[in-house]
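Fold these two proteins, one after the other.
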Amino acid sequence: MQLRDIQGQPVAIHREDYAPPAYWIDTVDLTFDLDPAKTRVLNRMRIRRNADASNQPLRLHGDELNLARVLVDGQGASFRIEGDQLVLENLPDAFELEVFTTCQPAKNTKLMGLFVSQDTFFTQCEAEGFRRITYFLDRPDVMASYSVLMRASKDQYPVLLSNGNLVEEGDLADGRHFAKWVDPFKKPSYLFALVAGKLVAREQRVKGRSGRDHLLQVYVRAGDLDKTEHAMNSLIRSIVWDEARFGLSLDLDRFMIVATSDFNMGAMENKGLNIFNTKYVLANQATATDADYANIESVVGHEYFHNWTGDRVTCRDWFQLSLKEGLTVFRDQEFSQDLCAEASARAVKRIEDVRVLRSVQFPEDAGPMAHPVRPDSYIEISNFYTVTIYEKGAEVVRMMQTLVGREGFAAGMKLYFERHDGQAVTCDDFAQAIADANPHSDLTRLLPQFKRWYSQAGTPRLKARGTYDAAERVYTLHFDQSCPPTPGQSNKDPFVIPVNVGLIGASGRELLATQTLVVTQAGETFDFAGVDEEPVPSILRGFSAPVVLEFDYSDEQLLTLLAHDTDPFNRWEAAQRLGLRAAMAAIDAAPGAGAPVLSNDFIEAMRRVLTDTSLDAAFKELVLTLPSETYIAEQLETVDPQRVHAVREAMRARLATALHAEWQQAFEDNRDTGAYSPDPRSAGRRALAGMALVSLCLAARESGDTVWPGKTLQRFKDAGNMTDRFNALHALVSSGHALAAQALASFHAMFKDEALVIDKWFALQAGAPDRGGDVLPLVRQLMKHPDFSIKNPNRARSVIFSYCSANPGAFHRPDAAGYVFWSDRVIELDAINPQVAARLARGLDRWSKLVEPYRGAAREAIARIAARPDLSKDTLEVVTRALQG
């Protein structure tokens, strides 16, 4: 329910105000007569009064519905409409309610509820979309049994799908047909799904460990079937992994995935009928990159794992969103790591996950939209599908596993399902189950304090210092923890922080293997005896907690860790710290001071990494990637975006020219990976070859050489897969070479009928390095391209988000034109699709850190949006909080 004050402004909903519903809905029988212009929905519900509730009225949620009839036990009933609610009073304790409504799916540009995409019906009901289909108690703690009857034109909509099992189908008069589906499991309304259209399916039958047969289906539009093999294989691997790792079996006779090109999210875990953005289903080597293959595997796994962590056990209320999302992100991360045959590939996956956390979630924790993993309030729940809920929530679950061990965590999961299968529960219930299954663990002992990770916002800062007593052979580490204030939370109590630590000798020998320290106090000291020499501490191995680690490493110590640490994450981290240190020094220096942006020691360290034959190519690519502009900016008190951009570009150019010979050799060594396979080793080699091409084209730009740009264009033409082709195109575009225009035109001609590939074409140009302010005019031209449509979320993201959210050097213009463009697009999108608009509106969350003239211009742009009287509550919440930040 969306409350509003007397001025009509949205009012915040608070977690502390949660109360069970006054009524429960036991069964839902839905009948759909599907028509794009006017779909008729007949909803028959068996409802009973909550025994704990007083004689309250029944309030059903609705949004943009046309109400035609309301019957109670077959008789006409008095009712009233209050805002977006259908209100009935004087009801019996148990009754049947019939509600007949109509809606207009073809006009539903919000893509929430029932909508039409390319002549096909789809639904999206999470979080509060079901109320756009019929009046209902649209909240996650109301779990009911559903049966669904669909009727539609057989010619236009030959495929009719919903949750559960198909129990009946047949033909009707006038060229129509019907299908009836029954879901054997109770579910909340947000997990309801319906699909109807002209679709084809890849099918596979599999047998679970129990011997039960299952039909797996991946539905797509005709012409895309050849791009579904990887998604199907990913689904099968997910099923096998969940049975092996957690003993969780597929509980349905049929499991379906359907892809649509118009979707606000990546995918949706509706029980038995997952609806996906095509971006996370369609792949073949000609049209998808290695990153696409990896993302499909991860997202297919994520949505399948929701079948238990989200569907069988769901959230009591939306404040508990991380109960399902944080846990399931953790599960899909573990799935991806467990599929890696080699330890180096597992480390690469972990580093990639941490990069997302630190480049996106840490800034969120430090900005105006900061909120705990379990928020205390919201105005629009869609705004809280954030990296804090997902990625930080996953880190909280990972810390639980660290504290109880892998087997202990599996035991806790088993207890969680024994206690709560079929229920809507809380984050506390999950944490309690993990603790109770491990009664002698640190988690159980510290559980009340550990749960501060759910209630306190912000990124803790862990300051460490070390001392060595040579006479006693004792090394001492002292930790101080703190957490900055966040909106609504000034004072923070100490967290439980598991810290994985090892010790490395100056010669590179490991003096102490990994130990897990548990920091619980504001200040705490740990001694390590029997240490024969002063060590270099390797702290926070594997990124064992989502904190900012402060340790005054010398350059020599970081070079030692980079060269010798047995923990791959901290080897990478050492390179990041060295690169960040160089960037900060260059930013602080007077422009044109003449000092090199990268020291010779750093260059030589990178040379050793690039030429080390013992290192995996994917790991090399990560180590050689400099800290991003966004990450650098987050380390500064005040930010001059153009200065940060100039410094990082200078660092890239220096690394390219200084290692020119090594980049050539790296390209030659990794250019040929044989028959295409998206496995981690092959993908890593292609990634390093692509990085080498970028560096060689950058070096060519500095020297005026034309050889390597020419070779890169030939690589583009000869490529046998999308990864190699796109890497070559990226090298030409990012270096600003004249040959880029030819390659871009050729790329568009080759893939003009492949929507997802054209998204890449748009995004590459909108995200290109800015040289002389040329990107914004290009973005404006791209929006006029015949292939661009702002109504399609993928296409809007490919151009507008790539520029405004992912290209800070081009977006933050001294003339404020980037901010004006951004505010225009937020307003334009808000009238079409508020969810997409609200996500774009997050682009200036950190405006208050900017130096002038950027700061004032950014605030003016935000205020311009906030002043709109017709703004959606989605976008209004974001910009209002931004102005307060």
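Now the second one:
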Amino acid sequence: MTPSKPKFAHLPLSTSGPIDCALTGTSVLNTPYLNKGSAFPPDERRVFSLSGLLPRGVQSLEQQVKRAYEQYSTRPNPLAKNTFLTSLKDQNEVLYYKRLIFSGVKLIETHVEEMFSIIYTPTEGDAIQNYSSLFRRPQGCYLSINDPDRVLPDLAQWGRPEDIDYIVVTDGIIEEHRVNHPCEDGEEILGIGDQGVGGILISIAKLVLTTLCAGIHPSRCLPVVLDCGTDNQELLKDELYLGLRQSRVRGRQYDEFVDTFVNSVRKLYPRAYLHFEDFGLRNANGSAARRLLELYRPNIPCFNDDVQGTGCVTLAAILAGLHVSKQKLGDLRLVVFGAGSAGVGIADQIRDAIAAECDISHEEASKQIWLIDKPGLLTTETELSDAQRGFAKDASSWNDQGRDLLSVVKSVRPNVLIGTSTVPGAFTEEIVKAMHEHAPRPIILPLSNPTRLHEATPADLLKWTSGKALVATGSPFDPVSGPWGANGEDVSIDIAECNNSVVFPGIGLGCVLSRARLLTDRMLVAAVEAVSSMSPALQDPTAPLLPGVLSVKEISVRVARSVIKEAVDDDLATERDIPESDGDLDEWIREQMWEPRYRPLRHVQMEGATRSARGELMKAGSVRRTGTF
């Protein structure tokens, strides 16, 4: 019996049916999103002239995955494993993503943390630091601040307006404020400092996560680095360094360069979603990340994961914790320790949610939030950024009170404490117990990465609160057991990870599929509510506050649905015929989510073929990626 055709198989991004291919021979094998390697079936080998180019044995995708994993396992260290996966991605896109999913889902406990650590933090940080020495072939688009006139034509090489859905751009720096931390060089990417052109790997890694977690079509994504120079002297002295050999450009020239890039993107790819990644706080007279976001989000669909993604996933954890502790947002008293881009982004997101929930102004909602940074509690006497100013407390009211974390906790009596400081051990036993005196179920979120920089460990937090703390962390931790049952019996408590991957891919998917004109606060709140509604803790108080990455694709569907519905309600969705019912909308979303499986290839003539059929997606112009060292 012939299977029925999916209801939404007619959509341009449908993942059902065959793929048109106008290439033959080695050209097919050299196109990662068309190549099947040893899995090409006999009929396709004949049609596409591959018979003499492949061994006779025909293998399944699962057999290829097994071989790839065996090869991967022989690599001696994480960086070598990362390099192997990069090479695999350049050869066979389906096998690359199937390899990740095979390890991350089918072999769950054994490999999921390993794979995320290899393709993203911390191993990706090592790859970035060694970018120029490990370089084999270019990936993505490199734009130079010294050639602003080249921005438009260089971006134009990547396709027609309908070819690009998702763009991630970085300038290669990030700064998280470090409260009294010895490392205060300021501008960091995964905690490793200014890495110049090597930042392209962050854009690439982020796009891998969007595909892995939300089915964004990988051949319709574009990673970009804005090469503005570097202040990293080791790179400038390295004869192999591939970026601009000059100090990092700031100020007006930097702003004009970014503006040229954004305007070029909107002209060339008007339906694309723009994701800013790792823009340093001290660039161009303040927070580049926040300032650029506030500048462009009223006019284009754009997003910054460090500011908005972290805020969204943290708010989702807080909402779940408030549900467990039988409280509401109106009851919230929040202290944030570490007022950098992540800390202030979290505060912004929570302030907006309080204002919406309680129908009050942002100014009134901010009174429920206290920020602490290097000088202590941020007050009207503190030197503040524009982003921090809205949370500053009246200095006169703190004349007789300490402004350190312990003093603030004793005075404020918070029920939520968040750490984004990267100061290890900052949440001491005295501080936690002082909080617990007035909060029966304190919500404590030490979010700094990596684990060695956590403000406290879950084991200590639960020990100091007799198992009452509701904990989520910035890195994965094992469950914690202790004598916290009703009769003193041992209870095992699972620890949630505030992983942005459960939020930002679904937000992007919703914007891409709805072709949203903007990404608004209401759409972000809808995404947060979607994630918090899937919290395991809603059914079991000992379960994690957030769903894990193992169910991230279903989370992304729920998030995308909520974002799309909000976009439709606010007349921001430009895509036609979006289904209204939840069931149809979920099916509509899933049909357009790319999956790593081999679809049949259908031979078409080169004349009149699409760029996809000609193997030109994600390639500058029509140049084949043979790649030279």
